[in-house]
């Protein structure tokens, strides 16, 4: 009939002429196929087959050679073949029936199909069962089910309390699936940390755990940027933002702006007259921070000579006063918040009732600021005018002659001056610093020369306005950071933070990098709002192993003030340069009688 030669160099040689036996040849193959497909009994059929296992990585190029069906030492079961394949095999794989060679017909994806199975039926010998296994590559990044999520913690939540976060899933197999999680940014004072564990389904589940103390009054919210990294080199990553709201608990009691208040009131003041106003603040939120005022009747003012507005803290005369009966009234004022378990604090109010003659002096204050409001710039120099005070006593025949005016409060930073004892000016006496004291309570006291003298008091609540006199201050003069040489553009390097003691626009900071080409600062960029430094382009350890960046923090004042900090970035090297010969082809001649060991060529790279 015919003689089939053993395959050499993947070529098949038949000693017959195909046209002469074409019909018999195909009839013979069809009988073999029919016999193979109709055979029953799994174990018995396996005994008549050879096993052939091939592997190929997913994503290889089209027409990539996977292997040959008949790579056996014997000459049996060689090509040509009839192929009996599962559905889709010949759509993805190109099988040469003449040589038995298998190549890719399209890019393979293990996540879509992990293996291909077929049976090759030869002219003689055992059938060959071929299984092509698609091996995994790191071609899928971890993916969170959503880009952001929101959770809440009460500010009194103890440490180690966990909240389950949405885990990232990776379609790749171990070790290319999700391997770890990191907090990239937003973790102020390291308040949180991550923990993870892998379940039987292979998913690396993620928990957010409290590692510090939460204080809503200090930090009311966090925005954590969390990354999931797989096991590739370099790893692929997915990002998710976790927005955390810190819920308020009533952990702060109201605080008065002063522990003791003083006021004077004439005995002929009418009922309903305002005596003074107390003020307490509570740093808690909502109802926990809402303050109401009351007079402790058990400890003071049992006669209810005064009343207090529960909302504003203004103290009013409730009954007619009598200097001869009681000259000094001591009140205990309580400030209480609206928490479920209210917290309270107390302050003392001393109200002195003054005797009257016929008329008390009147005090008129005109503030000399641009808008006539009670304020002065912290840049004001000693001697600069703050307010104009005029005092009038109708009892005096000569205007202003019988009234003495004094100024209390201000810790010596303000003083009164006059040239004719008629018009008084409040002036700056000592340099001001808003960052030390932002407001002052001054008391103007006018005393007539009656018997007894009558006192009139005018309280001035003076606000110190800001000037841009403080430059931003970095937390450190020199920062150190590390980054891999293979880091992609946009990789986080370091976040720097500066503070400005001024307020408003004078304290609004923007960040920038100084242009220093000799240190390769153009490899990096900085977020002007957050101070987060990231890579702008690919970096090269061989060009500059430790780039030095100069970070500039500039406030919004006019003119702006700025300061700088140095960031030293250490680039960790990876093996990204292969050896290169100095030429691609070498030609050398050698005599046949050269001794053994003689050097005939030296190459270099």
Descriptive overview:
By secondary structure, the chain is mainly β. 5% of the residues lie in helices and 40% in strands. It has three helices and 40 strands. The strands form twelve sheets. A four-stranded mixed sheet has the order 1-7-6-3. Strands 8-14-13-10 form a four-stranded mixed sheet, with no helix packed on it. Strand 22 and strand 23 (344-354) form a beta hairpin. The two termini are 60 Å apart. Residues 1-43 have low confidence and may be disordered.
Find the count of extended strands (DSSP E, 2+ residues).
Answer: 40
The level of helicity is under 10%
Overall structural class, as computed from helix and strand content, comes to mainly beta
Task: Give the strand order, joined by hyphens, for the main sheet.
Answer: 1-7-6-3
In round numbers, the mean pLDDT is 85
The coarse overall form would be elongated
Separation, N- and C-terminal Cα atoms: 60 Å
What descriptive keywords fit this protein?
mainly beta, four-stranded mixed β-sheet
What's the gist of this structure?
This protein is 5% helix and 40% strand. The chain contains 3 helices and 40 strands.
How is the secondary structure organized here?
Blueprint: H1 18-38, H2 42-47, E1 49-57, E2 65-68, E3 81-85, H3 89-92, E4 93-95, E5 101-104, E6 115-122, E7 127-135, E8 148-154, E9 162-165, E10 178-185, E11 192-198, E12 204-210, E13 221-230, E14 237-247, E15 255-256, E16 260-266, E17 274-277, E18 280-281, E19 291-295, E20 306-308, E21 314-317, E22 328-337, E23 344-354, E24 362-367, E25 375-377, E26 385-392, E27 403-408, E28 414-418, E29 423-428, E30 439-448, E31 455-465, E32 473-474, E33 478-484, E34 492-495, E35 498-499, E36 510-513, E37 524-526, E38 532-535, E39 548-554, E40 562-572
Parallel strand pairs: 1-7, 8-14, 16-23, 25-31, 33-40
Antiparallel strand pairs: 2-5, 3-6, 4-5, 6-7, 9-12, 10-13, 11-12, 13-14, 15-18, 17-21, 19-22, 20-21, 22-23, 24-26, 26-29, 27-30, 28-29, 30-31, 32-35, 34-38, 36-39, 37-38, 39-40
């Amino acid at each position: 009939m015919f003689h089939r030669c053993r395959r050499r160099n993947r070529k098949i040689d038949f000693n017959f002429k195909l046209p002469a036996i074409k019909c018999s040849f195909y009839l013979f193959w069809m009988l073999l196929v029919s016999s193979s497909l109709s055979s029953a009994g799994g174990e018995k059929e396996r005994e008549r087959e050879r096993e052939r296992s091939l592997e190929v990585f997913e994503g290889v190029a089209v027409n990539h050679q996977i292997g040959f069906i008949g790579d056996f030492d014997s000459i049996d079961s060689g090509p040509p073949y009839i192929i009996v394949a599962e559905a889709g095999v010949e759509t993805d794989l190109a099988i040469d029936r003449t040589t038995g060679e298998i190549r890719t017909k399209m890019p393979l994806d293990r996540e879509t199909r992990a293996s291909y199975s077929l049976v090759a039926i030869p002219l003689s010998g055992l059938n060959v069962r071929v299984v092509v296994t698609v091996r995994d590559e790191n071609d899928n990044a971890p993916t969170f089910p959503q880009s952001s999520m929101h959770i809440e913690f009460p500010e009194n939540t103890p440490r180690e309390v966990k909240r389950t976060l949405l885990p990232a899933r990776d379609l790749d197999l171990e070790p290319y699936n999700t391997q770890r999680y990191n907090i990239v940014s937003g973790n102020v004072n390291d308040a949180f940390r991550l923990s993870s564990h892998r379940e039987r389904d292979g998913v690396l589940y993620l928990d957010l755990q409290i590692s510090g103390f939460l204080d809503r009054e200090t930090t009311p919210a966090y925005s954590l940027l969390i990354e999931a990294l797989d096991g590739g080199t370099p790893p692929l990553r997915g990002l998710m933002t976790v927005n955390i709201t810190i819920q308020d608990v009533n952990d702060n009691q109201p605080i008065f702006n002063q522990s003791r208040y003083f006021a004077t009131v004439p005995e002929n003041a009418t009922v309903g007259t305002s005596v003074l106003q107390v003020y307490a603040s509570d740093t808690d939120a909502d109802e926990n921070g809402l303050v109401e005022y009351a007079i402790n009747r058990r400890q003071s003012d049992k006669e209810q000579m005064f009343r207090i507005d529960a909302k504003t803290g203004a103290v009013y005369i409730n009954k007619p006063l009598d200097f001869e009966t009681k000259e000094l009234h001591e009140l205990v004022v309580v400030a209480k918040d609206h928490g479920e378990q209210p917290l309270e604090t107390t302050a003392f109010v001393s109200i002195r009732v003054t005797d009257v003659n016929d008329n008390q002096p009147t005090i008129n204050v005109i503030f000399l600021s641009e808008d006539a409001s009670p304020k002065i710039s912290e840049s004001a120099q000693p001697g600069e005018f703050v307010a104009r005070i005029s005092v009038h006593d109708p009892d005096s025949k000569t205007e202003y002659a019988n009234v003495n005016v004094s100024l209390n409060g201000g810790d010596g930073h303000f003083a009164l001056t006059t040239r004719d004892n008629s018009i008084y000016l409040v002036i700056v006496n000592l340099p001001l610093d808003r960052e030390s004291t932002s407001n002052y309570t001054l008391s103007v006291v006018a005393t007539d020369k009656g018997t007894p003298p009558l006192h009139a008091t005018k309280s001035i609540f003076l606000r110190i306005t800001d000037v841009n006199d403080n430059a931003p201050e970095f937390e450190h003069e020199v920062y150190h950071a590390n980054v891999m040489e293979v880091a992609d553009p946009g990789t986080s390097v370091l976040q720097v933070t500066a503070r400005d003691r001024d307020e408003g626009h004078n304290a609004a900071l923007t960040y920038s990098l100084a242009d220093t080409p000799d240190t390769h600062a153009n490899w990096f960029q900085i977020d002007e709002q957050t101070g987060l430094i990231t890579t702008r382009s690919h970096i090269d350890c061989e060009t500059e192993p430790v780039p030095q960046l100069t970070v500039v923090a500039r406030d919004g004042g006019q003119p702006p003030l700025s300061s700088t900090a140095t960031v030293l970035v250490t680039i960790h090297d990876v093996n990204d340069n292969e050896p290169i010969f100095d030429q691609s082809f070498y030609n050398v001649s050698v005599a046949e009688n050269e001794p053994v060991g003689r050097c005939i060529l030296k190459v270099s790279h």
